[in-house]
């Protein structure tokens, strides 16, 4: 079943905020929270993430029904990519080196910002490219 395109974008906006705070403060626990949010989104789809739940329960009733939909697979893949970067960032901040935490968290922040601000989902584009390559390889 297709999903409301505004949901992943809302999640990306919250992710941008969380990751920016992580970069400013170096708060490992906040990065752990974001890693968990990515893990839940990757495992169950963006609707099962905490930000998806918040969008569905609080935001969507106030902004009305969706007018655009998208397939859930690309955003779910994007959550998995975010999980990898957040996990690497978590290792960098918790165990060192710090530059690894900064770089991985910064990369995840950049991708989340692109989605939140411009509607360009880098992880989704990676998914679509991988699908095209897989089809051509067959």
- How does the helix and strand content classify structurally? mainly alpha
The best one-word shape is globular
Biggest beta-sheet profile: 2 strands, antiparallel
How many helices does DSSP assign? 6
If strands are numbered along the chain, what order do they take across the biggest sheet? 1-2
Give the integer mean of the pLDDT values: 96
Distance between the termini: 27 Å
Beta-strand proportion: under 5%
Rg to the nearest angstrom?
15 Å
* Low-confidence regions: none
SSE topology string:
EHHHEHHH
Q: How many distinct beta strands?
A: 2
Helix proportion: over 70%
Description of the structure:
The chain has 138 residues and is mainly alpha-helical. It has six helices and two strands; from the N terminus they run βαααβααα. The protein has helices at 6-25, 28-44, 50-63, 73-95, 98-118, 122-137, and strands at 3-4, 69-70. The longest helix has 23 residues, at 73-95. It is globular.
């Amino acid at each position: 079943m297709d999903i409301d395109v505004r949901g992943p974008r809302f999640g990306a906006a919250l992710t941008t905020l969380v990751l920016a705070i992580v970069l400013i403060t170096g708060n490992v626990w906040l990065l752990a929270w974001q890693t968990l949010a990515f893990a839940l989104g990757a495992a169950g789809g963006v609707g099962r993430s905490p930000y998806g739940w918040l969008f569905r329960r609080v935001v969507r009733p106030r902004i009305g029904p969706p007018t655009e939909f998208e397939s859930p697979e690309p955003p779910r893949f994007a959550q998995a990519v975010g999980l990898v970067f957040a996990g690497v960032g978590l290792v960098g901040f918790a165990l060192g080196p710090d530059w690894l935490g900064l770089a991985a968290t910064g990369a995840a922040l950049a991708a989340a910002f692109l989605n939140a601000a411009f509607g360009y989902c880098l992880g989704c584009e990676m998914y679509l490219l991988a699908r095209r390559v897989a089809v051509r390889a067959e």
